[in-house]
Structures are given as C-alpha cells and as structure tokens.
C-alpha cells in the first residue's frame, strides 16, 4: 500500500511538472521541445535595390523592412545562378545546379526535371514529421515525376514554371500552351489571373499555417512576381512610385506582413524561422517592368553582382538578434544545411552548402572561409573568396535597348566581354576597378580554385531526371 501511494505521488508530481512546462508566460506558450516551423518566401527577379531596407526610395516595403528590423539582414548573400531553374534547384538541394543536371532553365518543352535521387528541404523535413507545402512557382520540371509532391511536399498549389511561358508572351521563342494552375497533382485552371495571384497564394499560405499551427510545418512560398508578366490587385495597382513593378513588390510586401501577423496572432512567431530572398537579380531588358540592382553591376543572366547578389532577411524572435546585419559571404546553397542544423538533422548526402546557423545567432561568428563559384551553365565564370572576386574571360549579356510597358527590349546574351579581372568587393561592390595587376598571387590562387572546381563538377555530378517522349 505504501509503495502504491509512493507510485501515485510520483506520477502526480511528474504530471504536475509536465503541466507546469507547458504553461504560459505573458500569454506565450513555452515550446522548448517543439520543432521550429520553417517558412521560405522567395520572390522572382527581385533586385538588390528594390526594398526599402536595401536602399530603395521608390518602392515602399514597410513589412519586409520591419522583418529586417526584427531579425537579420545580409549584405553579401548570393543565389547560385542568375536564372530561375538553376537558382531554385540549389535552394532546394544545397548543391550547384550543374551537379544535378539543371544548369539551364526548363520550360514546357523540356524533358528534364529534378531527379528522384536528389533530396530536397521538403524531403528531409517530411521524414522528420513536418507538414510540408509549396504555394507558388516550382520550375524544376513539369512532368508528373518531377513535380513538388514527388519531392517531399504534401500539398502544392501553383504553377510549374514562369508565368511568361504562356500564350500571351510578347516575343515567344515558340508557341507556348496555356499555363496550368495545379492543386496537388490536378490542373484546376489555365492562365490564372496574374493580378490576383499574390493574393491567392497568400490566402492559401495563411490557411495552411492556421490549419497546422499545432504541428511543425514547412511552407515554401515562391512568388511568381515581380517576374514579367506583371500584375497587382486593385488594392495595390497605382500605389507605387515605380509603376506596375513597384505595385507588384508592394503587394508581396503586404503578403509578408499578413504572414507575420498571422504567426503573432497564433502565438507561434517565436517558434517560426522566416527566410526572405529572391531567385536572381532584375531582368533589365524589360525597363520599367524590371527592378533595380542598386549600385551593383548588370542584372539577371549575368555572373556580375547584380545578377546573383540578392536581398536575404531572416527572422525568428527570441533566437535571431533584432536589427542585426551580417556582412559575411553566404549563399542559397547554405539554406538546406542551415535548416537541417536548426532542426537537428543530419545530411544524408554530400552537398556544396554549409550551415550558417551560427551567424543567425551572432552575425560576427567565425565561419568557414569557403569559396563561392559563379556559374553560367556548366562553366565557372567567376569565383569569390573573402573580399576578392575574380572573373575569368567570358562574354556576357548586355541590354542594347530597354523595353517598356511589358515589352522586352533588345538584349544580346554575348554582347559584352570581360578579360581576367579581379575586384575587391569590400570597397568596390560595383565591380568597376580591375586590381588584377596589383595582386597577382590572389589571381593565381583564385584561378586554380576555378580549375579545381570545374574538374570536381565533372567528376562529381549526376544527371537530371529525364523522361522519354515518343515523337512521330
């Protein structure tokens, strides 16, 4: 009897301690043992200079600016490529796109897609018990075996590739079919209204967050805008000093605000990591329907800073120091390993990225001084190590005449030429002064890095997923 009473008393004490452990302090639940939620917000063709917190005085982005004030803003963040498909492939997998056969943009005619042998952020998180969803633009292959639900996402609502790959393209490379809007594996609509797309994707995201507030979730929201064709709802059309482009960015900013507000209302903001960025720099040939790279040189489609250095903001109140700025060299390759680090998971395959979670805690933390390679297709055109960026000889895209009102201008993908050129980005982010002659040892070291890396890409890569299409 005494032993039985002791057991009951022990059980009561344990239950009481567990009850105390989930009580609230100032209305906030203590969630020490709960896995953090992850939200990635990924704009399309947004330039380095298009946000207020990155220097824009034309486009008002109060919600994204507030996210930066509540979290950390990165000055030297790069995506792995200056175009849609390879950039997104690296974000999802942590490897350079050339390693997995997705170094070029895919479209409705492509037979390529993300291989089932490659693990994505969603694959890792789903196997760890997360609810996973993608609302927006995929662009890693449109055939059934390449679509999001085959790569770890429980739910998908969005489009398989860019909105301009549709019948209304002003200067199409071929006759594009109607662009499908999917819910999971079914097409529910064709040629969705671009003016309401941001609102619809935001609504889907908010519903998902509310439905899964008591479980760990991963939401990937790759906005199809401000890539052309531009659009904005009545609420935002005509609101910006930067025309329709600015209106589209302001609506994305509103979307970010809605998501942050929902997290606060549900009292899960402190247990949610939000990351905001862009897939590449602005498509300059579209003129007033394109963004700005700020002081950076060139834009989308080039390996200059304007093509691949983009905004990157992270927020997680209580974990990431508010109002902080990090000037370290980091990239989209680092997103997957960082998320795995935060969620206490191990990598199952070798990747190119590294965890930057220590920087989220302290922007001055010591990190591995790792080289970053700027690739165009399978060729390395430049490398950055620390403050130094070396371009090897290559031709690059130039805009001979800008377009306007949704019409593309004249761009020549091989119109520019650069020789062996070294820049000190610490004092010359605009890549305007060649200092190669003053630093021959640096040039030699970086040149060798490129040669070694190109060999490694050849040696350690695997093909994309391929489907066979019988043509009569």
TL;DR?
By secondary structure, the protein is of the alpha/beta class. It contains ten helices and 22 strands. The radius of gyration is 23 Å and the shape is globular.
N/C terminus separation: 85 Å
Assign the CATH class of the largest domain: Alpha Beta
Q: In terms of structural class, how would the helical and strand content be classed? A: alpha/beta
Profile the largest sheet.
10 strands, mixed
Percent strand equals: 15-25%
Write the CATH fold name of the largest domain.
Alkaline Phosphatase, subunit A
Q: Write down the overall mean pLDDT.
A: 93
CATH superfamily heading of the largest domain = Alkaline Phosphatase, subunit A
Gross CATH architecture of the largest domain: 3-Layer(aba) Sandwich
Can you describe this structure?
- There is one protein chain.
- The protein is an alpha/beta fold and 472 residues long.
- The strands form six sheets. It has a ten-stranded mixed sheet, sandwiched between helices. It has a four-stranded antiparallel sheet with strand order 16-17-18-21, with helices on one face. Strands 1-2 form a two-stranded antiparallel ribbon.
- The N and C termini lie far apart (85 Å).
């Amino acid at each position: 009897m005494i032993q039985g009473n002791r057991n009951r008393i022990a059980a009561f004490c344990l239950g009481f301690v567990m009850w105390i452990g989930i009580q609230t302090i100032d209305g906030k639940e203590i969630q020490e043992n709960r896995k953090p939620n992850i939200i990635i917000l990924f704009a399309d063709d947004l330039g380095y200079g298009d946000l207020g917190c990155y220097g824009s005085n034309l486009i008002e982005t109060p919600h994204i600016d507030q996210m930066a004030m509540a979290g950390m803003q990165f000055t030297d963040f790069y995506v792995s490529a200056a175009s849609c498909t390879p950039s997104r492939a690296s974000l999802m997998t942590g490897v350079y796109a050339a390693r997995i056969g997705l170094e070029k943009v895919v479209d409705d005619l492509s037979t390529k897609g993300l291989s089932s042998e490659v693990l994505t952020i969603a694959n890792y998180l789903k196997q760890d018990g997360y609810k996973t969803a993608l609302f927006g633009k995929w662009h890693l292959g449109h055939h059934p075996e390449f679509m999001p639900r085959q790569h770890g996402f429980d739910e998908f609502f969005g489009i398989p590739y860019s909105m301009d790959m549709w019948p209304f393209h002003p200067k199409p490379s071929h006759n594009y079919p109607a662009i499908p809007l999917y819910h999971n594996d079914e097409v529910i609509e064709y040629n969705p209204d671009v003016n309401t797309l941001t609102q619809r994707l935001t609504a889907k995201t908010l519903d998902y967050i509310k439905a899964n507030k008591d479980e760990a979730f991963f939401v990937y929201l790759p906005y199809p805008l401000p890539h052309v064709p531009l659009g904005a709802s009545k609420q935002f059309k005509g609101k910006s000093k930067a025309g329709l482009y600015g209106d589209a960015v302001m609506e994305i900013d509103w979307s970010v605000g809605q998501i942050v507000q929902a997290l606060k209302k549900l009292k899960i903001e402190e247990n949610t990591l939000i990351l905001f960025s862009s897939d590449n720099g602005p498509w300059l040939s579209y003129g007033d329907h394109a963004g700005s790279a700020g002081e950076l040189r060139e834009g989308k489609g080039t390996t200059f800073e304007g093509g691949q250095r983009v905004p990157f903001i992270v927020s997680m109140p209580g974990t990431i120091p508010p109002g902080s700025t990090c000037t370290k060299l980091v990239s989209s390759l680092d997103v997957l390993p960082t998320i795995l680090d935060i969620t206490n998971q191990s990598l199952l395959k070798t990747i190119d990225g590294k965890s930057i979670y220590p920087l989220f805690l302290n922007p001055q933390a010591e990190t591995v001084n790792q080289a970053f390679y700027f690739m165009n297709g399978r060729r390395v055109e430049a490398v950055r190590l620390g403050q130094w960026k070396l371009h090897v000889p290559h031709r690059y895209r130039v805009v001979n005449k800008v377009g306007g009102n949704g019409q593309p201008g004249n761009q020549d993908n091989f119109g520019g030429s650069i020789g062996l050129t070294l820049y000190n980005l610490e004092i010359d982010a605009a890549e305007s002064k060649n200092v190669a002659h003053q630093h021959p040892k640096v040039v030699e070291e970086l040149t060798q890095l490129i040669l070694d890396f190109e060999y490694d890409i050849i040696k350690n890569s695997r093909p994309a997923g391929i489907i066979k299409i019988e043509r009569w």
